[in-house]
């Protein structure tokens, strides 16, 4: 009997094409990530969207926990505060990095009768390491948070020829771009044509960072190979086409998610009508712990399937405000103190 069952299973597996995930889905079948076979059933981890075909970053552009803690953390800390504290963040952690410009604009939703809210970001330059920085501030205050949530039920806007992104995120970025960021990045490109560009942000800042990295490529200012993107607590920002374009464009693009952080699951993908589904782009780095030094993390093979942080049965606001064992509500304002 056992021999018969084994033989049957062998014949079943042998009869199924071991084609690539992408080709499997293109043929109208599902891909089973558990056994890496097309149309295999039953399957616990079924892939139905090419966006989620298992793929890991090229080792040349690997995520590094120590670099994230010592370099990226003070970058998005600096972006969350005013000019003097931003430079203090650099002085305390990265002395060769110098603040270039802080941009503060009105990014209120004009369709809502609410008090004015603002969006902010900074640029910085390290002439020693040849790095330019764009760091975007996250949500500030309940009014702005309310605007974002209300906008999830409104329209999206086309992102050049590559899908759509949420209207609030689009308008907020455009306000920054027209409010001084475009001229700033053109000036920096002219002065430092061969520098890398590091783009980052937390929460709303993560969404704006994703758009910002994509925008300067679409605008023809920088090649995607010269851009590194790392966000923390980023909400879903664009639709399927935007996410596919993004992950096919950037070799170094990481979304760090802390344990049960609520915001990366907003909007809740599977509670929106199918035509309006929003998706994350690659690559998620999931810390299923408290993110203290030495904590393990998962480099997630799917972009936005029921995998990694999407396995969580519940969510936490506290996890959203704490990354790398640091309270982001205070970190930038204190000048990004070490330890």
UniProtKB/TrEMBL annotation:
PANTHER family in UniProt: FUNGAL LIPASE-LIKE DOMAIN-CONTAINING PROTEIN, PROTEIN CBG11750-RELATED
Superkingdom of this protein's organism: Eukaryota
InterPro entries named in the record: AB_hydrolase_fold, Fungal_lipase-type
GO-annotated biological processes: lipid metabolic process
Classification of source organism: Eukaryota, Metazoa, Ecdysozoa, Nematoda, Chromadorea
Fungal lipase-type domain segment(s): 133-270
Organism: Caenorhabditis angaria
Protein name, as recorded: Fungal lipase-type domain-containing protein
Record key words, sorted: Signal
CDD domains tied to this protein: Lipase_3 (cd00519)
N-terminal signal peptide: 1-18
